[in-house]
TrEMBL record:
Keywords: Arsenical resistance. It holds the Pfam family LMWPc. Residues 3-137 form the Phosphotyrosine protein phosphatase I domain. Signal peptide: none annotated. It comes from Hyaloscypha hepaticicola. GO terms for biological process: response to arsenic-containing substance. Transmembrane segments: none annotated. It comes from the Eukaryota. This is Protein tyrosine phosphatase.
Length: 146
């Protein structure tokens, strides 16, 4: 049985969905990946969907969810991708690992459409580096680092 990994953010609209899509693409055969928020905004940001599509990952069917819906599941690893979610994160039944890898929120980017898209791509690429490295560690059977 695959273990559950839950990626948390405050709004569950950008960073957590990008991380979920990237980690699922890199290690979905090994783990079940989910994302949620402490204060979900109720939608997945269209630019997050667009920049993942650019790297061949489709998150268009993702929905913004509250982290409490996972309280009745066995979550082995919780990964927070913003500071607020790290502080608001409850302990989940069966939780073994907890990681905090913070990323800038591209939803707050200002400027022209091209400048905003460049920020979404930068954050996507930062998330991709971290989560693909994490997936490689899982693949090697290395114990997850705290």
């Amino acid at each position: 049985m695959k273990t559950n990994v839950l990626i948390l953010c405050t709004g569950n609209s950008c960073r957590s969905h990008m991380a979920e899509g990237i980690l699922r693409a890199a290690a979905g055969d090994l783990i079940d990946v989910h994302s949620a928020g402490s204060k979900p905004v109720g939608f997945v940001h269209p630019k997050a969907i667009e920049v993942l599509k650019e790297i061949g990952i489709d998150i268009s069917a993702h929905t913004s969810k509250h982290m409490d819906i996972f309280l009745d599941r066995q979550i082995a690893t919780v990964i927070t991708v913003c500071g607020n979610a790290d502080q608001a994160c409850p302990l989940y039944p069966g939780q073994v690992n907890r990681h905090h890898w913070g990323f800038d929120d591209p939803a707050h980017a200002k400027g022209s459409d091209e400048e905003v898209m460049a920020e979404f791509r930068r954050v996507r690429d930062d998330i991709r580096k971290v989560f693909e490295a994490y997936a490689a560690g899982l693949r090697e059977g290395a114990p997850a680092k705290n």
